[in-house]
């Protein structure tokens, strides 16, 4: 059997090394409780809910891999899903790259998912995977925007910001995760595309820099990112509804 015929596994990489300062002081954002369970656990379960995902790699804070491993060991996941924890880097881009390096050779499709999107439905995950399997090198789930967007000229002093343009809303999408990739394409992006400062925050944007196509599939309103305290309130409400209607654990 050739190597190509064996490379049919899908893995998810979850960078969870950030501090999440916009949620305030305390534990890293990924470890904040949602319904009594850390958001990271919800995010891992969201990936493991897809029968196509056989491996989830959690990229922990650089000095926190043992603690994250212990956290995962204290919760239940589908037996079919392998869990791996690796230490991350100083930026999200570095952490994703370290997660990619940890993947076994038989993985050919990679999802990159934000730990701060704990409630993404399995249908969204499966839709991203299916689009990559159908031949797209990079896939992002996204939603149309409800608000009009203005482009402004930022004022570094925090003063008034003049509007310089109004993009056509019908052409804009709010991008979510998991983003899905052909593994070779994503590895190429991480080894050839560089950003200054804090690095890339969007893996699909790195693939765009290579000139490769990125396609959009429908996202879901419950795949929102928990960034601010109000987001956590909304996530608690969604989780409570799921527990009543769907028997969600």
UniProtKB/TrEMBL annotation:
InterPro entries: IspD, IspD/TarI, IspD/TarI_cytidylyltransf_bact, ISPD_synthase_CS, Nucleotide-diphossugar_trans. Gene3D superfamilies: Spore Coat Polysaccharide Biosynthesis Protein SpsA, Chain A. Keywords: Isoprene biosynthesis, Nucleotidyltransferase, Transferase. The keyword Nucleotide-binding does not apply. NCBIfam families: ispD. Catalyzes the formation of 4-diphosphocytidyl-2-C-methyl-D-erythritol from CTP and 2-C-methyl-D-erythritol 4-phosphate (MEP). This is 2-C-methyl-D-erythritol 4-phosphate cytidylyltransferase. It comes from Streptomyces olivaceiscleroticus.
């Amino acid at each position: 059997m050739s190597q190509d015929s064996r490379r049919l596994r899908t893995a998810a990489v979850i960078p969870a090394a950030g501090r999440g300062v916009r949620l305030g002081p305390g534990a890293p954002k990924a470890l904040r409780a949602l319904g009594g369970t850390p958001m990271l656990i919800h995010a891992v379960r969201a990936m493991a809910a897809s029968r196509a995902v056989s491996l989830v790699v959690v990229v922990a804070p650089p000095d926190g891999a043992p603690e994250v491993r212990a956290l995962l060991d204290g919760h239940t996941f589908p037996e079919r899903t392998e869990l791996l924890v690796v230490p991350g880097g100083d930026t999200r881009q570095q952490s994703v790259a370290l997660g990619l390096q940890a993947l076994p050779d038989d993985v050919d499709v990679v999802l990159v998912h934000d730990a701060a999107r704990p409630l993404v439905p399995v249908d969204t995950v499966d839709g991203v995977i299916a689009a990559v399997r159908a031949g797209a090198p990079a896939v992002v789930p996204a939603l149309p925007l409800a608000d009009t967007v203005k482009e402004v000229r930022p004022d570094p002093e925090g003063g008034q910001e003049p509007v310089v343009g109004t993009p056509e809303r019908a052409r804009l999408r709010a991008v979510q995760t998991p983003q899905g990739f052909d593994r070779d394409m994503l590895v190429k992006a991480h080894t050839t595309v560089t950003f200054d400062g804090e690095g890339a925050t969007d893996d699909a944007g790195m693939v765009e820099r290579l000139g490769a196509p990125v396609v959009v599939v429908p996202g879901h309103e419950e795949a929102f990112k928990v960034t601010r305290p109000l987001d956590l309130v909304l996530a608690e409400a969604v989780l409570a509804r799921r527990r009543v209607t769907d028997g969600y654990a």
